[in-house]
Amino acid sequence: MKVVITGGIGFLGRKLAERLLADGALNGQAIDRLVLFDRLAGDVAPGDDRVLTVVGDLTDPDQVTGVLADADAVFHLGAIVSGQAEEDLDLGLRVNLDGTRNVLQACRGGGRRPLLVFTSSIAAYGGDLPQTIDDATPLTPATSYGAQKVACEMLVMDFTRRGLIDGRTVRLPTISVRPGKPNKAASGFASGIVREPLSGVDFACPVTPESSMVILSPRRAVDGFVWVAGLADETLGHDRSILLPGITATMAQMVEAVRRAGGDDAANRISFKHDPAIQSIVDGWPRAIAARRAAGLGFAGDRTIDEVIAAFVADELTAA
Amino acid sequence: MKVVITGGIGFLGRKLAERLLADGALNGQAIDRLVLFDRLAGDVAPGDDRVLTVVGDLTDPDQVTGVLADADAVFHLGAIVSGQAEEDLDLGLRVNLDGTRNVLQACRGGGRRPLLVFTSSIAAYGGDLPQTIDDATPLTPATSYGAQKVACEMLVMDFTRRGLIDGRTVRLPTISVRPGKPNKAASGFASGIVREPLSGVDFACPVTPESSMVILSPRRAVDGFVWVAGLADETLGHDRSILLPGITATMAQMVEAVRRAGGDDAANRISFKHDPAIQSIVDGWPRAIAARRAAGLGFAGDRTIDEVIAAFVADELTAA
């Protein structure tokens, strides 16, 4: 089968690619072609002749159509992140909304009904939120990123209902710990507060110690992508969106977890330098998740912050 | 002030135009220009020099920008109706989604923050619905029309949050009784079952007598547009969408109400001829509405089917 990952050179795209290559199959079908479509060039699994990297632009319908021709499964991860979508409304609309429409349109035709895993976000929720959100919490996003993601969820549901695709949407909590350089995601600090001090780098947290985030580790996120792809069509039914679980941690709790993992030297590298713009976005996000649908269907998230940090150390620091 | 109605030559657009012209003002400000933008030509209030009709296409950004320049308030009613959006996915996406984006973009700029009343629909709800829906019922539309409307609701909310517009969305029940010829709305029979027999025309109802619809009269719909435009910005807050109230009637009840209004002659003109495609769409729609938000803010719908039918007779049959 041919599998395409948009945003395939991004951090989660690479991890998913490595997982799929290691599995060698998706839903019991051998993967003979894995296409990584990204606006950036990159090298994933060099020498593995199943892999093809394609540099291109989600906003170009012809490029997207070319890449998705004959795809049996698509993981659509490519997007403008939340901070940047907030800075530049038009860019977010072009990439996150029009880009996703290009993906949907490119999946049509030829009698096929490709599997599409779409990555939405807990930014789908916002405004006057209950302390704990679940799948049925009203969708009133308080960021442009969230609004664009929900708009696309509707199209994924509709294209699925019409029999054009077999769509599944996962609403992701903040992914932490991300390796590498900070990006423009407003949630970036939830990774930086662990990654930087454990790498010997000072880190200024832009939100208050009492601020909390709901996080999911990269390992479990990739597990979630593969898991949702494997659910029976009829199990999902009409509503194609599933909120993935996350654990809640305040920044103060993150500091203490960093101290347990890396000692006082690491914890003391963390300072707090308030950024009202980031604080305002983060204050609009949920405090806790009850991922009832995912749990009912057998998917479990991370158990503790310490486990999340240990996985980061094993996968990114020790491996590097 | 300058007010624009998209779909201004359509049935509800005309009624709204006549109401605004009679009021002479919106939210206490005199209306000196009322622009009716529609793909069809038409003549509303001939001789009234406040009115300008513009024939054009919502999918053309330049035309929309031209018409909305300097608009202080926009009632965005123009759309492809549900049946047609179901028949032609791409047409629905172009008009209902891209067209609304054109309207939103045309409202930007120049430091103004125009009022935008957007018409969504109870088609925003669908799938595995509770017997009674309210504002907070999950948005899982079961038609392309509904999916496109919800996608736009998200953009209206986001553009409002960003301070680009002062957006308000009303989710309309099925409007009944519509005058004139049947259109391609899947809900058209809810008007036809009253309009045709009372006009001496035979009518074949495409859904079973037990099938129910939630309806709002044109009079109350227009009241709702003007009412929502007048709500204080802070009353609405972050969530800009309000479900309008509707009353529930089965087709059998409609037949009896027609009998009360027009006698056996009228009622006997109604027959039932099942259309599985229409039935399937209608079965995905809510059975009853608890319009809690609208009620809490003081808006009341129709009281009885007989009242709805009497208004139709007075406004459309007696007047004509």
Brief summary:
Two copies of one chain form a homodimer. Chain A is α/β, with parallel strands linked by helices and 320 residues long.
Structure description:
2 copies of one chain form a homodimer. In chain A, strands 5-4-1-6-7-9-13 form a 7-stranded parallel β-sheet, sandwiched between helices. A 3-stranded mixed β-sheet of chain A has the order 10-12-14. Chain A has a two-stranded antiparallel ribbon with strand order 2-3. In chain A, helix 1 (11-23) packs across helix 7, helix 6 packs parallel to helix 9 (251-267) and helix 9 packs across helix 12 (305-318). The model of chain A has no long low-confidence stretch (mean pLDDT 95). Chain A contains 12 helices and 16 strands. In chain A, strand 2 (25-26) and strand 3 (29-30) form a beta hairpin. The longest helix of chain A is centred in the N-terminal third of the chain and has 18 residues, at 89-106. The first copy, chain A, has 2 domains: 2-173 and 217-243, Rossmann fold; 189-214 and 247-289 and 302-318, UDP-galactose 4-epimerase, domain 1. Chain A has 320 residues and is of the alpha/beta class. Chain A is 42% helix and 20% strand. Chains A and B meet through helix 4 and helix 5 of A and helix 4 and helix 5 of B.
